[in-house]
Amino acid sequence: MPVKVPDNLPAASILESENIFVMSETRAANQDIRPMKVLILNLMPNKIETETQLLRLLSNTPLQIDIDLLRIHDRESKHTPMDHLNTFYRDFEDIKHKNYDGLIITGAPLGQLDFEDVIYWDHIKEVIDWSQTHVVSVLFLCWAAHAGLFHLYGLKRKIMERKCSGVFEHQRIKAHVPLLRGFDDVFYAPHSRYAQMDVEELKADPNLTVLAESKEAGAYIVISNDNRNLFVMGHPEYRKGTLRDEYFRDLEAGINPEVPANYFRDDDPTKEPIGRWFGHGNLLISNWLNYYVYQLTPYDLSDLSAITPWEKA
Fold first, then answer.
1. What pLDDT does 77 receive?
2. Choosing from 142, 146, 164, 280, which is the catalytic residue?
3. CA separation for the pair 297, 304 (Å, rounded)
4. How many CB atoms lie within 10 A of CB 133?
5. What b/e sequence results for 34-56 when a residue is b if at least 16 CB atoms lie within 10 Å of its CB, and e otherwise?
6. Largest CA distance in the chain
7. 249 in a known ligand binding site
8. 77, 219, 230, 312: which has the highest count of C-beta atoms within 10 A?
9. What is the DSSP letter of 92?
10. Separation in Å, CA 113 to CA 108, 109, 147
């Protein structure tokens, strides 16, 4: 089944060129189907690239998904045309009265700032608090995962001197969990961040369960014990060239970055990257949508205030 997107969204033409089925709002209006309603709070600078990455993963499911795009503020962006933001993005005031099946909060290039120093931190907290009563399941990615763990559970991260960048081996440490159904015992995932959560502190928290971790990159997948909040410390949505683009961008900026680990052939940045996380990324999002959204959400989303389906997982 397709992902339903706004008419003329640039990501649609990109996905169609990859033979990924997306459906315009106009066409979807003629179908008598209750789609999953997923909200994406996009905090990344290049909004169009991140939209495309996430829609590519969301399309790999038999469910029809209705997407709303949310921005955290309406200021000018250096990396995304204002016309695009005004046309396709909503402000929180426009959607806060609504309920959603799922919410995805993306990463953000804010890894070296304390959360309280982020200019829109109060808005982030407001959206997270709202999500706990208006969304069936929330997926936090990378920076957002750290932000969610800090705001909801008071867990602090450690800011590192060197960026954790590369594709790392991970171990599945919980076998019989719906989110990891179909996962290999060992799988790969990309990371790109300046901060780290303490794995033992996460494991000790009575509200959380660590599902997967890496010896090199630390905790990767953590879920709240009520199954409502999913924290993914890396970037399963990245395309093959994303880490390469970040590496050369940082080189040009004079940051002197380390070559992303286990990424380029022979660890040589003049050679092609190796993409070996796509199967895991697609399975992770499909399992989340199936087991933590679709199978738990009520048909009428207005019922969210009366029932708590995430406690039945």
1. 78
2. 142
3. 8
4. 10
5. ebbbbbbbbbbeebbbbbbbbbb
6. 56
7. yes
8. 219
9. H
10. 11, 9, 11
Q: Residue 47's pLDDT is what?
A: 92
What is 3-157+197-238+278-312's CATH number? 3.40.50.880
Whether residue 182 contacts residue 150, with contact meaning beta carbons closer than 8 Å, is answered with no
Q: Where are the domains of the chain?
A: 3-157+197-238+278-312
Token pair of 144, please?
């957002």
Specify whether the CB–CB gap between 100 and 132 falls below 8 A.
no
Token pair in block for residue 48 = 């169009």
Per DSSP, what are the bridge partners of residue 23?
4
Q: Which of 49, 51, 213, 237 is flagged as catalytic?
A: 237
Handedness of CA 310, 180, 102, 139 (dihedral sign): positive
Q: Which residue positions in the chain have pLDDT lower than 50?
A: 1-2, 19, 21, 27-32, 306-307, 309-313
Q: Which of 188, 232, 235 is nearest to 214 (CA)?
A: 188
**Residue 224: predicted pLDDT:** 96
- Single out the residue of 50, 46, 65 nearest to residue 6, CA to CA: 65
Q: Does 163 belong to an annotated binding site?
A: yes
Active-site residue, 97 included:
no
Q: Provide the residue count of the chain.
A: 313
**Among all chains, which residue has been given the structure tokens 């380390």?**
258
Ligand-binding site membership of 265 (annotated) = no
pLDDT of residue 60: 83
- The token pair that represents 121 in the structure block: 């931190």
The count of other CB atoms within 10 Å of the CB of residue 304 is 19
- Of these residues, 146, 170, 235, 280, which one is catalytic? 235
Residue with tokens 């959206």, as numbered in its chain = 127
Mode of pairing for the β-strands spanning 186-197 and 89-90: unpaired
Instruction: Count CB neighbours of 19 within 10 A.
Output: 6
Q: Is 62 exposed, middle or buried (0-12, 13-18, 19+ CB in 10 A)?
A: exposed
